[in-house]
Write a structure and sequence with these properties.
mainly alpha, 90% helix, 1 helix
């Protein structure tokens, strides 16, 4: 019986060993599953990070391109502003020059207007004086004509002088 007991024990020991192995295999399978899940999660995380990095790099490239374009635009705007500023300065200078010339012309015109006004006033005074003088001359002529008429009337005979009128010859 000793042999039977030892065979039984060895069978039990083997079964126990198989159970232990089965448990260990089961634990190992669980651990492998856990590790596989962790690996898949890590790989997914790595893939997401790679996508994020690629997107960030693309965004950075786009931003650099936009920055370069913005710099080019800024330089062009600075040049345009400088040209415009120069043009404004030239225009302002021309406007000031034109204003000075126009003021000078206005002053000249005002002076000419004053001179003309003075000349018109002088002419008007002369016209009035001539009008007064003309009235005096006409008055003197009338007086002279009356006197001449009186003198003629005194020197003429009373008889009426006959004047013959030529006849119409038919023309």
């Amino acid at each position: 019986m000793a042999e039977g007991t030892s065979t039984r024990r060895s069978k039990q020991a083997r079964m126990e060993e198989h159970r232990n192995l089965a448990r260990e295999l089961s634990l190992m399978a669980t651990e492998v599953d856990s590790l596989e899940k962790a690996r898949l999660l890590a790989q997914g995380e790595r893939d997401r990070e790679a996508k994020k990095r690629a997107k960030a790099e693309a965004d950075a490239r786009n931003l650099r391109a936009e920055l370069d374009q913005a710099r080019r635009r800024a330089k062009a705007a600075e040049r345009a502003l400088a040209e415009l500023s120069s043009s404004v300065d030239v225009s302002a200078h021309q406007a000031e020059t034109n204003e000075r010339e126009l003021k000078a012309r206005l002053d000249d015109a005002e002076q000419a207007k004053k001179v003309l006004r003075h000349e018109v006033e002088q002419s008007e005074r002369e016209r009035r004086a001539m009008e007064v003088h003309l009235k005096e001359v006409l008055g003197n002529l009338r007086s002279a004509a009356r006197e001449a008429q009186r003198a003629r009337a005194a020197s003429e005979p009373d008889e009426a002088t006959m004047v013959t009128v030529p006849r119409d010859v038919g023309w």
